[in-house]
Design goal:
This protein is mostly helical. The protein is built from nine helices and no strands.
Amino acid sequence: MDNSKTRDGFSLAALHAGDRAEFARVVDTYYEMVYRLAIRMLSNPQDAEDILQETFIKAYRKFHNFDGRSSVSTWLYRIATNEALMFLRRQHPELTPIDDTYENDEGLEKPAHIVDWCCLPEEELMSAEAQAYLDEAVESLPPNLRVVFILRDIQGLSTRETAEVLNLTEMAVKTRLSRARFKLRELLSKYYGEKVAEESKP
């Protein structure tokens, strides 16, 4: 029996054998991580709970296929992401995949309306209202852009890790992230533009 460890310290042999105690360690370690991804993707606690449950059910059933070349966390991210995207496609069949025609930032449409919010008070930038608006802006992104932004800029994965999770090239990840950031900056400029205008009133 293989006694090797995964990158994140779990017993690969135990996971392959369906050891419940070792699997429980995986769940305890990554429960919150998977839920945070699901709630960011779906913006609905019940739907996020469903994705969380389905992710760990599939992981338990398929751990015998896990070869240990990636970390368990990356593997779980991949399952959770696929489940969330499939859920969104079922709920919104009109959604279409993102076209990665461009391999770099050249040709990306720049935001049409940019506001300089550097002079707003810090409490305005960090307010609950501003955070709620940011959450709405992220939710408005097409799913394929949203998931890249969430994995890279919210969950903190590297470009390489994000590419591994999504089965994309690193260049495709960078392109989608650029598009997501441009779109968010435009949306946030609209919000902060109103705040700047309010601050400028005599």
